[in-house]
Input
Amino acid sequence: MAVKLNTASFLGVEGNIVSVEVDIERGLPCFNIVGLADTSVKESKERVKASIINSGFEFPVKKIIVNLAPADMRKVGSLFDLPIALGILMATNQINFADCRNFLIMGELSLSGELNKVRGVLPITIEGMKNNIKNFIVPIGNAEECSAINKINCYAFNNLKEVVYFIKYRDLVPFNHKTINVESKNALDFSDILGQESCKRALEVAAAGNHNILMIGPPGSGKTMMAKRIPTILPNLSYEDALEVTKIYSVTGSLNKNEGLITRPPFRNPHHTSTTASLIGGGKNLMPGEISLAHNGVLFLDEILEFKKNVLETLRQPLEEKKITINRAYGRVTFPCNFMTVLATNPCPCGNFASKKECNCTDFQRKRYISKLSGPILDRIDLFTFVNSLDFKDIENCSRGEPSKNIKSRVEKARRIQKQRFKNEGIHYNSEMSSKLIRKYCNLDERCLLLIKSIYIKYNLTTRAYSRILKVARTIADLNNSKKIQESHLAEALHYRKFLDEKFL
Ligand SMILES: Nc1ncnc2c1ncn2[C@@H]1O[C@H](COP(=O)(O)OP(=O)(O)OP(=O)(O)O)[C@@H](O)[C@H]1O
Ligand SMILES: [Mg+2]
Ligand SMILES: [Zn+2]
Output
C-alpha cells in the first residue's frame, strides 16, 4: 500500500500543496523520485537515505518509488526530504501509519538526520491554512515564521528522530510564537542629525505621503546618514502588509531564526554596481530582487548617478506598476514592489555646486552631469531637497534634533487621514492619486491658483510636475490637519520643486 503525506512547494511568493506518495515493492533495489522534480529534489535521495540510517532506522533494500503530485508543477528545494523520509518509515512499518492527513510536513535533512531550515515556509503555511490544514511540522529554524500565522499549530523539531517520536506519541504542545522586541539601544534616530531642518522637514513630508524624494548635496553633508534614518519615522506595518513583506523574506531564506513577522518597514540600499537581476529579481530560482525586498518600505539608491543607465531604465516599469512580473520557460511569477524611493546625489562632478564651497565645474559639465537623471527617474520624483554641509558654527549652535518618535507620530496621523480619504479609492497614499483623484481632492482657491500659475509659467513646468506639486501640497495640508490646501501648504510644496528648476534645469 502506498503511503501519502502532505507537503508543499512555492513559486514566487505563493505556496502550492504537494502530496508525497511512497510505494515500496519487492524487486530490484532502487530509489526513484518522479513528478517533475528538479535536480535539487533528486539530491534529496542521498540525504534521505543517509539520515534514515544515521538516525538508527532501516533503509529498505527494495524498489522505492516516490511520486510528487501534481506532476505538472515544478518543484524545487530541499523541503521534501522530511516527508519522503517519514513516508519510507511508514511504508516499511518502522513507524505505524499514523493519520497525517491534517499535517503539512516540510524540512531539509542533513546526512546525520538533523533538520535544516528551509525557504518559503510562510507562503506555504498560508496556503496550507487555505486548504484547511491545521498542523505543520517544520524545522526548528522555521518555527517563528510558521507560528506567526494565527489559528494553526506549528510543531518544530531538531531532527528526524524527534519527528518520529512525535508522530508515534503526539506528546507535544504546539510551538508558541514569541514576540521579541527588536528595538535596540543603538538604533538610528533622527535626533542624531544636527541642523538640516529643511531637509528633515522634506523627509517628513515624503514619509507622510509616501512620496519619492531626491536629496542633492555636497560630499559629507549627511545625505546617506539621513536616508538611513527614514524607516525610524515610518509607522509599523499593518498585519496584512507585514505578511506580504515577510513572505518575500521567507522565500529568499533571509529571515533570521528568531524573527516571526517583519513588522517594521524594510530599508534596502543596493550598491550602484548592482546588476539588473539583483535589483529586479529573477535568476535561476526566480527570486525576488532588491525592489521587492523594499516592498512596503524604503528603497534607497545612493549615488544615483553612478548606477548604469540601463539598470535605471529597468526600474521604470516597476516604479509605475508597483509590481514586477518575471517570465521564465518554467513559470511566471509576480512580486510586489510598492516602496518609497529615496535618491541621493552630488550636484556636480566636483560635488560643491550650490554649496558653501567653490565649484570649479563648467556650466556644461554640470548640466551634462545632472541630465543623467532625466527621463525615467526625474519624472517620478515628488520632492527635491538640497542638503548643504554644516559650518562649524552650525555644529556648535545646533541642539540635538527632534527624536524620531515625535516625527513618526505626525507621519502616522497624516497617514490615517489618507487612509480614511482613500478607503473606497483603492489606494493608500497621496502620492498614488491619479489625475482624477487629484481633481477630486486637491482643489485650489483663487489665491493658490494665482501662485501656482506664476511658477508654472516662470519655470516652464510640465503637467506632470504640476500634478506632483499638488500631491505634495495635499500631504502638507494633511500634516497640518487641514481639509483645504492653503497658500502656505502650496508654497512649501513649490519650494521642494523650485530650487531644482532654478539651479539645475
Ligand atoms: N547634520 C549632521 N549631523 C550630524 N552628523 C553629520 C551631519 N552631516 C554629516 N554628519 C557626519 O558626517 C558623516 C558623513 O555624512 P554622509 O556620509 O551622510 O554624507 P553624504 O552626504 O552621504 O556624503 P557623500 O556625498 O560623500 O556620500 C556622517 O556619518 C556623520 O558622522
Ligand atoms: Mg553618501
Ligand atoms: Zn562642481
